[in-house]
Amino acid sequence: MITLTMLGTSALLPIPGRALASVFLECGGHGILFDCGEGTQSAARAAGVSLMRMDLLALTHYHGDHIFGIPGLLQTMHSMNRTKPLILTGPAGLEAQMRPILQLAGSLSFDLSLMPMPEAGRFLSESLEGARLTAFPTEHRVPSQGYCFELERKGRFQPDKADALGIPRKLWGQLQKGETVVCEGQTYSPSQVMGEKRKGLRVVFSGDTTCCKSLTEAAKGSDLLILEGTYGDSADAQLATERGHMTFAMAAETAKAAGARKLWLTHFSQRLEEPDSYLPFAAEIFPETVVCKDGMQMTLSFDPDAEKSGQGCTKE
Ligand SMILES: [Zn+2]
Ligand SMILES: [Zn+2]
Fold first, then answer.
1. Which ligand is closest in space to the CA of residue 209?
2. What band does 52 get if pLDDT is binned at 50, 70 and 90?
3. For the chain, which residues make up each domain, given as ranges?
4. Which ligand is nearest to the Cα of residue 91, counting in written order?
5. What positions carry a catalytic annotation?
6. Cα–Cα distances in Å, from 78 out to 42, 74, 112, 232?
7. Tag placement on the chain: N or C end, fewer CB within 10 Å?
8. 3-state secondary structure of 149
9. What is the pLDDT of residue 258?
10. pTM here?
């Protein structure tokens, strides 16, 4: 299962009820925070999400509306005596951009490592079996990248094969978990009894970008595609392109071209007093569009019946 919580949906300026850019992904007791704009901490609290769980902070680019929440978050983790190491990744310029931010945060109770992609993705795969995090280039006004998180799904266990090979039933459970087993001098491996891998889950997050080929490629077959929609009205398409952003319709076209299953829109200009009212611009192109609100949550599961979405549990 993968749970996504939209923490901040505002672009450039925080406004009441709309924190700056940030999305939290949880899977198997691990967490990745994508961007960390101002207001991320209080938005996480309101949604009932603990950022202490996070292993990785993945930045899409270094504009202030995506990173100014970092020093405060690090200080909070320090004051709560965090000991779990934290990896910070981002596009080109990571060391130079993060140095002043880390200086502001001061000394920390945990190890923080700056690690570019794809190394940071490999680090995550080592601690979270079957998970894969990759980055792809996007087109903004500064170096920028989006992220793709995939969770693989094993093939089905084939009892007829296990019986034909004479594998004792007491070993079946271990083989299903992916373990190789030795019993009475015989070695049995999962590949002998597991079918072909099945379609897993794929979540793609754009950060700030205008439409580009690498984004559409990365978004292909995504179960949840989280794109920026800085501008609502299609009349702003030229402005959006010039500034390295997208309108709702541009994002919807990307989702449609990529064959995504669901589209979440975020990163709304403050000019969009009610982002929801611009939904038709996207929905007529890609009906499975959701105009996000802070705290919106979705749990993706291999079993579609277990999938759910709604607002995060708001705490008093
Ligand atoms: Zn931004
Ligand atoms: Zn930006």
1. 2
2. very high
3. 2-154+197-311, 155-196
4. 2
5. 65
6. 17, 6, 11, 39
7. C
8. strand
9. 97
10. 0.91
